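3.2 Worked example (two chains)
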Amino acid sequence: MLLFVGISFADTQKVPSYEAIPLQVSITDPTLDHEPVRLSPVRIPTIYLDDHLLIFSTPCDNSILTIINENGNTEFSVTIPGRSSTLLLPTYLSGDYCIQIMCGHFRFRGYIVL
C-alpha cells in the first residue's frame, strides 16, 4: 500500500491572521427623524481585525465608527471615508473594547481586543 503525503504550495503560504468581528444589529432611537426603515433584511457589515487594522469586506462608507472602553467612555471616533477597505486604529488603544458602527438608523456592535 502506498501513502502519498502532499503539501500544496498554498499550504506553505502564511495564513492571514485576520479575525472576523461578530456584530449585532439594533435600531437607534426610532423616534428620531430618519428615512423610513426598509422592509428588507439588514445587511450586517463584515469586518476583520488584524492587530490595529480594520478590514472592511462590506462597505461602511460614511458611517461613524466608535471605539468604547470598558467604562463606557468613547476612546476613538471617526467617520469612515467613502470607498475605504481598511482603517488603521490608533496604536495607543490597548485592551478590550466595544466597536460600534452607526449607519443611518442602524447600530452595529461587537467586541475587540487590541
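3.2.1 Second chain
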Amino acid sequence: MSDYIHYIIILVLIVVGFLAIKKVASCLIKSIISIVVIAGIALAWWYFS
C-alpha cells in the first residue's frame, strides 16, 4: 500500500513542478518579448531621428 502513496506523491510533485515551470517560463517569455519590443522601439527612434 505504501508504494501507491509514493506514486501518488511523485505524481503530485510532477504536476506541481510542471505548473511552476510553466508559470516561470511564461513570465520569462513575456519579459524577453517586452525587452525586444522596447529595444526595437529605441532602435527605430534612434534610426529615424
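3.3 Remarks
Residues 17 and 23 are 10 Å apart (CA to CA).
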